[in-house]
Amino acid sequence: MLTLHGFAYSNYHNMVKHALLQKGVPFEEHVVYPNTPEMLAVNPTGKVPAMTTEQGTCLSESSVLLDYLEDAYPDTPLYPANAEARAQVRQLMKVAELYLELPARRLLPAALAKIAIADSIKAEVRTVLERGVKSVRALAKFAPYLAGDQLTLADIHLRYALAIPKLVGPSQLDFDVVAAVDGLAQWDAMMADSDISRKIDADMSANLPDFMAYVASVSK
Ligand SMILES: N[C@@H](CCC(=O)N[C@@H](CS)C(=O)NCC(=O)O)C(=O)O
After folding, report:
1. What residue segments make up the domains of the chain, in order of their start?
2. Residue 70 C-alpha to ligand 1 middle, in angstroms?
């Protein structure tokens, strides 16, 4: 059986877990934290998530894992069949990662461990987030899903890419990224209202004490 390595508080882990559940692919979860010997044994970067395929190959990088699942388990596709529409889904995913998730992540130490961050860095992060917000405004169709009437990987990716901007935006920048895009709050509520999202959110809450212990152990 396929194994997903990581932990339930990780938004990147949850993107892949959501896709696995959506596609109905059987898998087991191996709880492991970043940069530990166990994680490094399955992913040389030490980052979460990684996957061991049914054939025993170790793979990492969430976008690679998502594409692998589409290739290896084509039933219940999460990309549209049409090449342009697929590219638009990938464009939304890339925008969410580069201009929302990654910049917001720079403020995570401030939000989680109360580590001081320079105002100049906060200003840089805000500029990039504004680019992301403008792009989502332009690209998302909300019909009712991001790319039209079918749920795609863009929806799954953005749901979890928004986790960090939602956490750090209001607390560190006084900037509510979700409220800044018309329709995004309604889409976010729609995405939360599924058995899969509820399971992932419940697993995430249950993992919080262990995750905070991990954060405390690496912040020493
Ligand atoms: N580009 C990676 C990013 C994964 C990532 O940043 N994961 C976080 C957990 S949510 C992590 O492992 N952080 C530890 C570190 O950066 O050392 C992917 O898409 O899988």
Report:
1. 2-77, 83-192
2. 21
42: number of Cβ within 10 Å? 20
Q: Ligand 1 centroid vs 48 CA: distance in angstroms?
A: 5
Tens of pLDDT, residue by residue over 90-134, are 999 999 999 999 999 999 988 887 888 999 999 999 999 999 999
Residue nearest to atom 7 of ligand 1 (CA): 48
Tell me, what's the pLDDT at 220? 67
Q: Is 10 in the pocket of ligand 1 (CB under 6 A)?
A: yes
Residues 49/6, Cβ–Cβ less than 8 Å: yes
Q: Is the pTM of this model over 0.70?
A: yes
Ligand 1 pocket member 93 (CB < 6 A): no
Mean per-residue pLDDT of the chain: 96
CA of residue 16 to ligand 1 center, whole Å: 13
Calpha distance 17→20 (Å, rounded): 5
Ligand 1 lined by 109 (C-beta under 6 Å):
no
Map residue 50 onto helix, strand or coil.
Answer: strand
CATH architecture of 2-77: 3-Layer(aba) Sandwich (3.40)
User: How far does residue 102's CA lie from ligand 1's centre (Å)?
Assistant: 10
Fold match, 2-77 / 83-192: no
In CATH, the architecture of 83-192 is Up-down Bundle (1.20)
Distances (CA, A) of 15 to 45, 112, 155, 180: 18, 21, 10, 23
Return the residue whose CA atom lies nearest to atom 2 of ligand 1.
Answer: 61
